[in-house]
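Example with several molecule types.
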Amino acid sequence: MVRPGDRQTWAGGRPAAPFDIVRAAHCELIVTDLARSREFYAGALGLAVTEETARALYLRGYEDRHHHCLALRLGPRPAVGHVAFLVASEDDLGRAATYYRARGCPVRIVERENAGQPRAVRVHDPLGFPLEFFANMTMAESLLQRYDLHRGARIMRLDHFNLHVPDVQAAFDYYYGALGFRCSEYIAGDPAPGVPDGPLYAAWLFRKPNVHDVALTAGAGPRLHHLAFWTADTDAIIGFCDQLGGAGRYAAIERGPGRHGIGNAFYLYLRDPDGHRVELYTSDYWTGDPDLQPRRWSAGNAQRRSFWGHEVPERWYRESSEVLGPDGLPVPLSEPAANERAVEVLPQ
Amino acid sequence: MVRPGDRQTWAGGRPAAPFDIVRAAHCELIVTDLARSREFYAGALGLAVTEETARALYLRGYEDRHHHCLALRLGPRPAVGHVAFLVASEDDLGRAATYYRARGCPVRIVERENAGQPRAVRVHDPLGFPLEFFANMTMAESLLQRYDLHRGARIMRLDHFNLHVPDVQAAFDYYYGALGFRCSEYIAGDPAPGVPDGPLYAAWLFRKPNVHDVALTAGAGPRLHHLAFWTADTDAIIGFCDQLGGAGRYAAIERGPGRHGIGNAFYLYLRDPDGHRVELYTSDYWTGDPDLQPRRWSAGNAQRRSFWGHEVPERWYRESSEVLGPDGLPVPLSEPAANERAVEVLPQ
Amino acid sequence: MVRPGDRQTWAGGRPAAPFDIVRAAHCELIVTDLARSREFYAGALGLAVTEETARALYLRGYEDRHHHCLALRLGPRPAVGHVAFLVASEDDLGRAATYYRARGCPVRIVERENAGQPRAVRVHDPLGFPLEFFANMTMAESLLQRYDLHRGARIMRLDHFNLHVPDVQAAFDYYYGALGFRCSEYIAGDPAPGVPDGPLYAAWLFRKPNVHDVALTAGAGPRLHHLAFWTADTDAIIGFCDQLGGAGRYAAIERGPGRHGIGNAFYLYLRDPDGHRVELYTSDYWTGDPDLQPRRWSAGNAQRRSFWGHEVPERWYRESSEVLGPDGLPVPLSEPAANERAVEVLPQ
Amino acid sequence: MVRPGDRQTWAGGRPAAPFDIVRAAHCELIVTDLARSREFYAGALGLAVTEETARALYLRGYEDRHHHCLALRLGPRPAVGHVAFLVASEDDLGRAATYYRARGCPVRIVERENAGQPRAVRVHDPLGFPLEFFANMTMAESLLQRYDLHRGARIMRLDHFNLHVPDVQAAFDYYYGALGFRCSEYIAGDPAPGVPDGPLYAAWLFRKPNVHDVALTAGAGPRLHHLAFWTADTDAIIGFCDQLGGAGRYAAIERGPGRHGIGNAFYLYLRDPDGHRVELYTSDYWTGDPDLQPRRWSAGNAQRRSFWGHEVPERWYRESSEVLGPDGLPVPLSEPAANERAVEVLPQ
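Resulting structure tokens for the full complex:
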């Protein structure tokens, strides 16, 4: 068991790791109606379509130079096909395969399975999540300066994944202790006599130097709580609320807009037509200094989830997207022992 | 009984009126702790202090050239001393006095009672509200271009008053039918066979050409539901939420930020230290064309109060500031027969 | 000769006038290539197309409920067909015709000549400008809350006209002294012994209560220096610069973005494909109080034209659109005796 | 000689380097009047004062957790004391000393010379610049979420240094070829027969994954062209222009605001009271993917320096701050052989 303040071994300016993850990179969502999802992600949110087939759609943000940061695949029920991380080199792909095989996890080398991605390593990790690692992707035109084409929520790129896990401490041991993620912020139960820190309820973990690539939240899991896109600025988020209102699709707004206490980002939570949760996220902070210390939040701090003290809807804590196992079926869920919700202070 | 679409007699580019109201201009709030209120209005919100005495404080927005748009007066319990309208000329003051005397209302000429205001006509109107009319005020330096001094919510000026009245139709007859206010938008019950429009639940009424100087809302009254200040832009409102969060006073936020369906303005509702409700408001629209038709909203339209479909907190509908009568005591309340709340659709 | 501070006779909350002008309302530009102009005004700027014929295009802002605020008409060379003001009633149309006939000006009643406008009075006024007055226009759908459709510079409505006139004082006598426009700000030569104020170089005049409906600038005239559209906010202007850059049409930017010292508005000046100058303009201030005093600027004040001290390009002072006379030919120009440019202080 | 596209040896997710630079971190400016500079940097720009002595002032951005990102030291004439880079560990300090000693450069270990910085390695590098490397600094309170205290240009942190060097190719060989900086963008002369790329006029180089930590520009050098601070957003920059205008200190604005073609950032260039150039900078893009290819710009591209086609003032290219040598005197300048200015296309 490691705790957020515990020392990590470093190499090359980052914690040492069995293979070198650069950042959270893309996600595959299983959707039940491609046209309807296209209308949401490309039509309303404004993601750029790189490639399209009868059963899949590949989208990217305006800043992306890679083929996609979101793949939508047609399926019988909503689920998460995989979440993917960019690694530093093809060698790291081999190291990742070796690492997971050694831990007894199902590992598969996938070649040209996704459009735009020649090769990847697909694993089902110890937490039960389907992960994909890749080092190369087909390039696509960056639309960063094609401001004349920017629309919708002005999404620049994918930022992070938030995972619902039944045992945050175990997941933390894996990401922080084993994979070399650093920790920017966390929520813990209050200290008690002889216990310097209470149970870990949530943690924000990063490889790229902003607040997170992966957040861990206590809940029935393994599930994907949300994926988050980075928008151009806060105005893009406010403007998108107005656009949803104008189009009569305001019901897609689940929570926000607002400012996170934890992580400082400006946010909006949406639910896509299949119920997958998408966060629009921008304006967090630089975490790349080696001496950065994790910031601790009490579960009773009303500003932790909303810096403005807004109440978080109950379903935001509870609902999440199931993930597919190696058999293509949803991975069965385990319930958490405890979560922050049990001890939270309601906003005043 | 007049209805929002009914024709008004016009003169000089506006509906004819017994005296010429230019706009909603200032408000006197009774507060129980001047220092605490000063910290809120001047400290946090950033209103400029024009003048200060042991028992009163006079504040203005950055655009104001008049002495104040808000007067705070020390008193034993929170209440509204008066709301004030600027009239076109001293002659209009005389006409206002005549008009109210003829309707049997208490009328008093107040001279130098408020700092910065040489002369005013104070009345208790047929709806039970303490109103003040004035044509001249001491000038103060406009801080419009002193951007180096702008702070807080970057408030430019007062925009409007929202009144809780037990009988919206009666109040509408008075403001629209008698005082020459125009109507921009309104909420009415659904039409029924033989009834082209249902009961009037709320109305937005103006003399100056934006959405309103006065809004009428069904509720126990007479009470002041809120006064609203015009901010520089929507960023001023978002930024102010962050400032409240940063100062640990987020509990002052009651509702929002958001976009109104009705009136289109961007808003935030605050409660001051005495519980008086203050709206930050910006970005509505031009209503000065003679052919503007009032826009009707159904009470069941979930976007009417929040264009983004956000739920309105129950207390926002219910709580309000009492107003002082001619005897200096709170005016007793009457309950409304019906209100939109009874028929509203909850956000989905 | 009247000066900006001189008293005007008032009636009904505004200066008395021979006919009641509500606001600057629309403009007809003669363009040499309709498709190219459509691409600029509808394509890049994002104005909504209400109606289109082989020889004309009618556009409106998102807030407009009237058929158009800009008409483009095909012609052999760029020019201004007319600038138009909304008047309070059909009676005011008759009064306008009478007024101009009495002054010996050509007056014509135009019926159904412009799409969407049943009736108007067209005059060639004493300054040589082709003016149109109208009281009614076909209604069009307001797109104010169709945020999902907003694009380009997010233009809400037309704000004002800026006129190049050889004799600003004569033009001021006409607008301020005769037509009942009020004055918000002006540039004058420095006072000298016995002369309380120097020559008038420019003036900002209004009927609707913001900074102006008409600005008068010294220059060879009569010409239209620019027409100005009101944008949603300053971000709309910044964002539009980026869009022009992204589309490789940055050469359309002539001056700005910046903040005006005079009038306080945020601005950007563009030149359309025919060289007509268009200002994007937002965020000035309320001028409707009867006691508003005109604000005087010295021609030597480097912040008058740019609050940030930016230099104004020489051609911005010199170039302008010719206007058509009653014969359909450009009105010959007269040169000004003097202008602010001769005495201005270069930015440091 | 290396060129921007040439392959670098990688280690640990970044190019291998003799010592591990994390990011551009702080700068020491010699100023001639501390009170006047304090008024500019703390007063107007709003940087937070961490520590202050009779002869020096230490300031930080709102996001900084380190003691300072800017040190002002009193001196007889304006100059640059040093620019500083954070390295990954104390071991890297030793490696840096070794590296520079091996290249014959003056190296000095400074202990507690700057407030808040226990230990640093000071070198005069092969390009003639005074550099400082440090691995640890005293912590200061991050003001990131103290939005109630944010003011001025809302500066978050230091972003980069721009260096005037007489030989860009030589400087590029050093930073890219030797120190392991990556290259995001560059300006080169047009290719000619047999020459795939013309001379290098400027290059943007990074260790932290945004556009740059160091930019190299052809000019008489060694000099510091500017240091750049990262602001909260573009509104912070626009708002700061207004603040300078409001305070009558608009003359501090040298260029902008605008959008860079190269790097995509929103910018404003200021000159401090001693003439040191400061850039406000925000909103560039993520460069941390290993497969990022440097983007090439032609010196004749009018959008390279200003995406909106704005002209760059001549003095912006020419003027710069001298740097101090090991003797405490300004390092003599060498003139460049050529620069982009000679071939640039004037904006249309």
